[in-house]
Write the structure tokens for this entry.
Amino acid sequence: MIKFFLMVNKQGQTRLSRYYEHIEIHKRTMLEAEVIKNCLSRSKDQCSFVEYKDFKLVYRQYAALFVVVGINETENEMAVYELIHNFVEVLDKYFSRVSELDVSFLLSESHLYISFWCIFQLIMELIAVNHTLEFTFDGNR
Amino acid sequence: MPAPIRLRELIRTIRTARTQAEEREMIQKECAAIRSSFREEDNTYRCRNVAKLLYMHMLGYPAHFGQLECLKLIASQKFTDKRIGYLGAMLLLDERQDVHLLMTNCIKNDLNHSTQYVQGLALCTLGCMGSSEMCRDLAGEVEKLLKTSNSYLRKKAALCAVHVIRKVPELMEMFLPATKNLLNEKNHGVLHTSVVLLTEMCERSPDMLAHFRKNEKLVPQLVRILKNLIMSGYSPEHDVSGISDPFLQVRILRLLRILGRNDDDSSEAMNDILAQVATNTETSKNVGNAILYETVLTIMDIKSESGLRVLAINILGRFLLNNDKNIRYVALTSLLKTVQTDHNAVQRHRSTIVDCLKDLDVSIKRRAMELSFALVNGNNVRGMMKELLYFLDSCEPEFKADCASGIFLAAEKYAPSKRWHIDTIMRVLTTAGSYVRDDAVPNLIQLITNSVEMHAYTVQRLYKAILGDYSQQPLVQVASWCIGEYGDLLVSGQCEEEEPIQVTEDEVLDILESVLISNMSASVTRGYALTAIMKLSTRFTCTVNRIKKVVSIYGSSIDVELQQRAVEYNALFKKYDHMRPALLERMPVMEKVTTNGPTEIVQTNGETETAVLETKPPHSGLQPGSQANDLLDLLGGNDITPVIPTAPTSKPASAGGELLDLLGDLNLTGSPVSAPAPQISQPPFLLDGLSSQPLFNDIAAGIPSITAYNKNGLKIDFSFERSNTNPSVTVITIQASNSTELDMTDFVFQAAVPKVELLRATTVMGRGPAASTS
């Protein structure tokens, strides 16, 4: 089960966060800081799966942004690794060459993506990269 | 009031903040603006404000005042408002807030809305944060939506159903009829979520699982879908790096795993498809490897045929050789899971696993270490130990404690010779001395006493080890103990195994004294050293005066423990000099204590036992507290072998007196203290035994049987024998005989054992003692 989904940059600023379990708000910031510290201290050729407290982190680095997903042991780590990549590819297609700024500015859209993807800790479906999205955006931006 | 700024402006402003304080200030200002805007009930800009609030919430600032606003947004008719409102509800609300119940009606209306997007939003939100009351109310609607033909809605409804089931398991049956045709869909989204729903149902309820196996013929359906996925050509909609919808494949494999577990028929039905997936999947990309990983896990879990299992282990072996760290990690994790069942197959990959110990990556090292310990057996123990000791030398501190305990355990089980065992433990103590667990010291001491022929060698090696460096406490403790015990062997230079070194009595005392004085020594270590010096007074001949002096100095030490020991030793020198040799005699061989639990627990319980016993000093007036540690270790060790005390009860029965006498004679193991009707509290028999006799265990394998109770015509005999098959089990046979003329009825047998013991009672023969029979 997915516990949380984070996109954090190298300075520790959270660009996107989605928690599937109730965690106190000040604990969240602490958690994010620790997680990013963990990921930053690893070198490039090290394993992408880190054991942290009682769950695992699967992380992937894209330029200056880290996408980190916290999972428990029932989940297939490599599938989650692929999921992260898929997610970034979709964002890329949608925002046309997405960058970190896009993610933070178009926060609500990114959030809604994740909602449609992972309702309550489960991967819902593969939104294929070439497939147009069913979701249309209109109105106030 | 000017229009509130947009979210983008806010983000831009916050980005310009250079310090945390500036950012906080900006956010607070904006929060105030938002709050006043909320108070004005401004409909047009509410959406914007809530979006900003969500951003601030993500950064970590409190945003609870926006909860009600989210509700208002949800109730509005505009889609954009609803969208932000639902998002806000998902992020800010959960079942702990009372406000969330107000949403129920809104969601209900939206579930029946004409636009599918609105329905979708409502389903999403319900699936994310619905509480059990909400789920109960709305489950019917969800079930209805599960049956629609609109695939967009169907997949969301399926996931929402999963959440409902999690919250309210009783509603599971409600969704059962809807699942019948879920797998007939073409749309992969629906397929995926249906598989998730089925997985959840099967995991939660074994009845459901049985139902799906038999009635629904789920396995053939899943096999068909999986086959289509693999066989179908390139489909742009579902393609990820050349493989068609890998996420769905992984999900199906997981469901197959649950269905096939412990079930032969299902496992047979899926053998072919698993073999097909395992051989046909492309491994050049990560995606393929993910699918193979899931396949391997499934093969291991179900009752697959042996050919398939071998295939799985080979795949794992291939993973291990791969350069990609992720794959190696995953392979090590799975091998750890399978090593219990397929031990031999995993052994083949032992050398690769041992190589992984040298990897730079922390996660891989940990896995490799655990796996290596699982693979140690009688044949490879020497080689493996060498590698593991090398690993212990070079690994990070967080591993050292686990590694040290692992090495001890493995060495204990598979040591090829005593000398090797002692060498190994010494090596661990010298390299990772400060990380070993506390019970390693008594374990090692017991091991040393048991290997009688190695005493000289051991003490010599230990002496050499602490000559250079006496900072590692466990090592110093063991060394002091040994020198105290076998100092005479050391001085006389009798070692056969190694080149004997020339040591004088003074040199030995020097080293012990420096341990005593050193700042690095812990209090416990000093205690060991002082006791050792004392013991040497009987073993050494020319330096007794020196020993007396040392002991008397510490009579005024600040450390209470040392002071007590020193004072008692002094007393020993002065008043009880005639008893000194007997008291400080060489330790007898401690019988190797085995229980049903791992040895560590034995010893620590031994320690706690000693703690208990130490509090009963009055009986042992003559007993110098000095030997307390060591002697009571011995006692603790003995105590563990099966004893059956009863639960402490209210009245000490009349039979109690007899038992105490009995036990005073008997001198320990197998001292049973149970009687059927009058229950007897456990007497402090050990100490009785202590003061009267030397504590030896001439415990032969046979233990004499005793008469536990003989009164009023009822005689109860206990006879003991060690089970041949398992020496840690003692079989106690209880014979009750009735020598009166009347029948005794309601014969109740009760027994209680301390937690270390395991008591298994077999059937009683004969109903109750009839007259004059047994």
The radius of gyration of chain B is 37 Å. The first strand of chain B starts at residue 239 and ends at 240.
